[in-house]
Description:
Layout: E1 10-12, H1 14-21, H2 25-32, H3 36-43, H4 52-62, H5 66-69, E2 70-72
Antiparallel strand pairs: 1-2
Helix pairs in contact: 2-3
Amino acid sequence: MPEEKQEHAIEVHLDRLLEERGMTLTELANRVGVTHVNLSILKNGRARAVRFTTLSRICEVLECQPGDLLSYRPR
């Protein structure tokens, strides 16, 4: 049975945070300890889940709060 595509209402602001800090996605991936591909999936809003450990590390490296990275936009 094919997997259903489920839309979500979470927006990811990784592009803005990276630009504000003058950091590339590759640099962030290296500093966080995840693959560039996994961060790209998150950045493009296609992630289905994110580990709290990864989210914590992203916030630590970018010196931000989870709310700076993610927001909820009702559909």
